[in-house]
Amino acid sequence: MPRLDRAHLTALLAAALALVVVHALGRFAFTPLLPLLLDDGLFDLAQGAQLATWNYLGYLLGALLALFMANPRGLRQGLPAALLVNAGLTLAQVFTHDVDLLAALRLANGVSNGVVFVLAPALVLEWLALRQATALSGLVYLGLGGGMLLCGVLVAITPWQGPMRWLPIALCALPLALLCAPMLRRLARDLPDKPPATARGALFGSHNLALLMAYMGAGLGYILPLTFLPALAREQLPAGHPLLVGNWWWTALACLLSATLWNHAGAWLGDRRALLANYLLQLLGVTMPILLPGPFGVMTCALLVGGTFLGTVLLTQRLARALNPDQGLRLAALLISLYSGSQLLGPWLVQHWTAAGHSLTSSFLIGTAALLWAVLWAWQVSEPRSHAEMEPSHVSHRPARH
């Protein structure tokens, strides 16, 4: 592992804070809020699934938009703008009781989230690659784990009901966005004007097909517990059980620890073997509420899925770049597009599954099948080159601009 100096820490912090704003506060806060908003009567479970679907559709559109923004201008201007817009949209949710307007806000939130979630970590990955420090890139995702814990606190302390439950979340997101937007802009200025990551070439090929197919399965597999586990806990646990609220805390805590864990696992085992182990554990986690419904199944699902899904992202991003080092930014956008496209199916399938009279618990069979698909494809992923070999051969050593 490269030494973590002050410049590395600043770069990682910029992207980590961006993920707190858009992905933890802007997106995943909806998960612990969902059972509370259902109790408030703001909408029913079917409408809640629709709202999640709109958000995931926006996320897919944002990831596709990031394909066209993966250039110096997009990084310097579009990325900070998307971050600020996302925080503003989170605030806007405080002021609406209308489900249709809320759906529009969740859609727009997803678009801005997709842009930032693709470009911020990819920007830092390219910045680190220029300094032969790619192995540090997974630490960016500590922001998401910490942000999920922050969500749990903000949801728990709010004294309000209905849409006002979003207010503490928005009041936290806005200053964080204002803080890290200029930090990301400065990082983008440090990249070459025409980095190798913008090279045009084949994004699909036999060298990365298995990795892409596995990632598609992972997107559908993880999204069910990350959207519906608190609601599933209400179905399986008695009133007043501590895991009705605590399941999100355990998920967030596992997520916080997972970025460092999987970053080191990739360095120790190799990213390919670490990814395969990651998928196997995630498969077990999604299956546990079906095999052992009740406190043990809910708890195990929270720990295993919370402790693996970030590892899936960081290991896949590094593997993809190792297999095709000249396509860093565009490949990051493609991966998130595939991931978000498959996870878009999750709430839609749950909506129709439960409407047909099936339980929310049994809908996790969809996630089990998706992650089994991911395991089978991950087994076929090629062994990449080492991290040292994946750094650009024509590294720029120009001084950073301040």
UniProtKB/TrEMBL annotation:
Record carries keyword Transmembrane helix: yes
Transmembrane segments: 48-70, 77-95, 107-128, 140-160, 166-188, 209-233, 245-262, 274-291, 297-316, 328-350, 356-379
Gene3D superfamilies: MFS general substrate transporter like domains
Organism: Ectopseudomonas toyotomiensis
Keywords for the protein's UniProt record, in alphabetical order: Membrane, Transmembrane, Transmembrane helix
The name this protein goes by in its record: Predicted arabinose efflux permease, MFS family
Record bears the keyword Transmembrane: yes
GO cellular component terms attached to this protein's record: plasma membrane
Domain of life: Bacteria
